[in-house]
Amino acid sequence: MEDQPSYKELQLEIKRLEKQLIEAQKMESIGTLAGGIGHEFNNILFIIQGYTDLALVDLEKNRDPTVKLQKIKESCLRASDLIDQILSFARHSEKQRKLVDITPFIQEATKLLRSALPSTITLDVTISSNSDSYIMADPAEIHQVVMNLCTNASQSIDGSHGTIAITLEDYLAEDHLQSTHSGMDQGHYLMLRISDSGKGISRSVIPRIFEPFFTTKKVGEGTGLGLSVVHGIVTDMGGSIFVDSVNGKGTTFTIYFPVADKLFMSKSRETQKAVPKGSGEKVLLVDDDVVLLNMMCRMLEELNYRCTKCSSGVEALSLFKKDPQHYDLLLTGQTMPGITGDSLCLAVRSVRTDIPIVLCTGFSEQLTPARISELGIDAFLSKPILLDRLGQTLDDLLNR
Question: To which CATH superfamily is domain 282-398 assigned?
Fold first, then answer.
């Protein structure tokens, strides 16, 4: 007889399959929203291109282009924020539940949704929960719950004009609730409700909608994973989810998250201050994108640093080895041919242990906090980098 798998092995396999299921469903949601996201990026690029042309006209006519340049900067930040939302949703990560106020994470998810949903769909968001109500949650899972339910709602509206309403409020569950919502205990909850004005769900189908792979959509229009994943996330958090639908009039999903002990946090407001500048320190700057390299060098010079540019890790390492004490700081990109940024950091650190190192990249899943620490990287900057953030980071490292 063949050896039978142990209970522990079966549990590990179930966990592995659950993780694959969730990741597959994330990609399905991103695919569903891709058209809207692409449309939003086109709008942003059009704004940047238009204001760039207008700024050039201002310069030709000796007019001040500051207002146009500010609009370009705002649009770049808007694009960066949209990318952050997509990456936050799509990123592979282990569950890390902690005590969090979920309000900002729901707001982040709705930012992406506003960009991705068709313009024919109105998104109404009402948040009235108490600011000191916290739950034990993984922010990425909250993001996924909102995205999945709203994607499902968008498909239900199916190209027509309609509304998706998201509300978050405090809820005190009492005895009467248990008669209609079995399995819920009395106590304090955060209630997340997502409603749509779509075609609704047939009463005969409702008992099965949370089953994996169950779908009423046509072949190729969905895997039937979205609601199953939502149900799994919510119940695993100790919450409950209920659905109410009228065929032809719309659907409402109501989720109850149990509130953890109240946590009162005082948030100190950061006072704005001038961007700190250097004192002529020498920075070894490395990136394979020559346009970006030249721009970053201009930014460093504006901050009163002296800059040595290298368009490859190989060139940078060669220069550094010739005179390691010549440079006060290494600022490098990550994805480069020949020697990647992390390999360059290791090589530089092996030659000189005390040089501050800053790694700058768009996005890389491999660069976890543990990996950054292992490489001896002192600071990590995500592109695009604002001038004040760059100045503050370098000042902190060089004057610590």
Answer: Response regulator (3.40.50.2300)
